[in-house]
Amino acid sequence: MYIMKCSMKENFSRGHLTNYGNIEISPSAGVLNYGQGLFEGLKAYRKTDGRIQLFRPEHNALRMQAGARRLRMPSPSVEQFVEAVKQVVLANKHWVPPHGKGSLYVRPLLMGSGSVLGIGPAPEYTFLIFASPIGNFYKGRESLNLLIERDLHRAGPGGTGGIKSITNYSGVYETVAEATAKGFTDVLFLDAVSGKYIEEISSCNIFILKDNVISTPATHGTILPGVTRKSIIKLASDMGYQVEERNVPLEDLLNADEVFCTGTAMVVTPVASMTYKDTRVEYKTGNETVTHKLHATLTGIQTGVIEDKLRWTLPIN
Questions:
Q1: For the segment 262-288, what is each residue's pLDDT rounded down to a tens digit?
Q2: How confident is the model at residue 142, as a pLDDT?
Q3: 187 within 8 A of 172, measured Cβ to Cβ
Q4: What are the backbone angles phi and psi of residue 59, rounded to the nearest 5°?
């Protein structure tokens, strides 16, 4: 894993690789007491020729910088971030699965590791990256069956829903656990103001297709601007679909032809059904769908099967 530290009034300068293991941290660290922390997620892919490449890592770096500004933390430069990711992947290259069998998931963390008792920014910060091999979430068969949550909200206006804060996730654990206990895959949350518009799944973005129009909720500070989300918007537009970032009413979701979710972990995954109150709506899935075409195009670029005309990939060996 990779570690780099700096104080509040300094800039990150130089880090180092070390063996994966536990880290020592003060009980009064800002991240433990006040949630002053961010994380990112990206993948390294092995191509058919055995070489390894990253997918748009600079966008993860920029998103971390945006979150760091909000949480009053120094952050690595884009160059530092990308170089650190490359070092971690190369040091763990034997863990990158063979082509088509999965990927190496890379987890960068930025946290207030310095001691602080009063509420305020920590005096010291740690940037850390570790990695783990993962299999393919989507294999052409899996789809999601989602429950629409009516009472609890994932994020509100002016909150941290638009950054990858560590505080965004555990607040929905109970709701998701209750839904999965009933047989659902995950939960879709509505906006906190009116409850009329769809926002996000617990940890991924959502898109709907109606005729030739693909729509996804505009971020507005409550929705995470996903790297996969951004990539799918571009790919769908290039394929000739009309893509809209807008407020998406619940009614539009329930009347859609296809629905799919995007994220680093699940890539592009179809939604088979959506349940709202006592109504269950089913959507088109399978190999003849727009969802499948987008998934195949994105993963083809990520793994080197399709030529990367957009220059999104970064070979590292």
A1: 999 989 999 999 999 999 999 999 999
A2: 81
A3: yes
A4: -75, -35
Instruction: Please give the Cα distance from 16 to 1 (Å, whole number).
Output: 8
Query: Token pair 């998103």 is at which residue?
Result: 63
Is 164 among the residues known to form the active site? yes
Name the CA dihedral angle for 146, 221, 32, 18, rounded to a multiple of 10 degrees. Answer: 90
Q: Classify the C-alpha dihedral 4-97-263-137 as positive or negative.
A: negative
Phi, psi angles (nearest 5°) of residue 297: -70, -45
Helix, strand or coil, per DSSP, at residue 205: strand
- 211: number of Cβ within 10 Å: 9
- Catalytic residue, chosen from 47, 86, 164, 210, is 164
Secondary element (H or E) of residue 129: strand 124-134
Cβ atoms of 231 and 312 within 8 Å: the answer is yes
**Which residues in the chain come in under a pLDDT of 70?**
137-141
Query: Which residue's entry shows tokens 């709701």?
Result: 175
CB proximity list for 316: less than 8 A, separation 6 or greater: 44, 52, 53, 54, 86, 89, 90
Among 99, 121, 124, 125, CA closest to 110? 125
- Residue 2 contacts residue 109 (beta carbons within 8 Å): no
Contact status, residue 214 vs residue 236, Cβ threshold 8 Å: yes
Residue 47 one-letter amino acid: K
In the three-class reduction of DSSP (H, G, I as helix; E, B as strand; rest coil), residue 298 is classed as helix
Residue 270 tokens read as 């179809």
The three-class DSSP label of residue 138 is: coil
Distances (CA, A) of 254 to 6, 190, 191, 269: 49, 13, 16, 18
Backbone angles phi, psi at 182, to 5 degrees: -90, 0
Q: CB–CB of 92/86 below 8 Å?
A: no
Q: Which pTM does this prediction carry? A: 0.95
User: Angle of helix 57-70 relative to helix 78-91, nearest 10 degrees?
Assistant: 120
Calpha distance 259→91 (Å, rounded)? 38
